[in-house]
């Protein structure tokens, strides 16, 4: 692709930027997957401690801590998902702009 701009990025810079965006997308996809697994496990603990679960008698000892951990993992999941989406959007924009095959 030829750009009529004096300070246009070279092909090497474009390819490096796309590789970096692919790497970041892959990293955040993995981190989001692990955050999802941890969140699902914490959901299981919340169910065990709740009124429906067999460990409801332990609510006073572990209930509040379980809920706090569950909410913390929810925040981690949202954060990782947002960064995964953002890196994917950047990668998509780079590929759409510079790889118009």
Give the helices and strands, then pairings.
Layout: H1 11-49, H2 59-98
Helix pairs in contact: 1-2
SS elements, strand count: 0
- The average pLDDT score comes to 89
The structure class reads mainly alpha
- The proportion of residues forming helix, as a percent range, comes to over 70%
**In what range is the share of β-strand residues?**
under 5%
Number of domains: 1
The radius of gyration over CA amounts to 22 Å
- Please write the string of helix (H) and strand (E) elements: HH
**Unreliably modeled segments:** none
Query: What is the count of DSSP helices, taking H or I runs of 4+ residues?
Result: 2
> What is the CA–CA distance across the termini?
10 Å
Overall shape: rod-shaped
Largest sheet: none
Your description of this structure?
The chain has one domain (13-98). The chain contains two helices and no strands. The protein has helices at 11-49, 59-98. The radius of gyration is 22 Å and the shape is rod-shaped. The N and C termini lie close together (10 Å).
Keywords:
rod-shaped; 0% strand; mainly alpha; 101 residues; 2 helices
Provide a quick synopsis of the model.
With 101 residues, this protein is mostly helical. Helix content is 78%, strand content 0%.
């Amino acid at each position: 692709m030829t750009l009529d701009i004096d300070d246009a990025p070279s092909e090497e810079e474009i390819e490096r930027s796309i590789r970096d965006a692919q790497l970041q997308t892959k990293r955040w996809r993995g981190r989001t997957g692990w955050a999802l697994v941890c969140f699902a496990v914490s959901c299981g603990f919340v169910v065990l401690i709740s009124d429906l679960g067999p460990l409801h008698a332990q609510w006073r000892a572990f209930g509040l801590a379980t809920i706090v951990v569950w909410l913390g993992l929810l925040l981690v999941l949202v954060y990782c998902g947002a960064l995964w989406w953002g890196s994917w959007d950047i990668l998509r924009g780079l590929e759409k702009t510079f790889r118009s095959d």
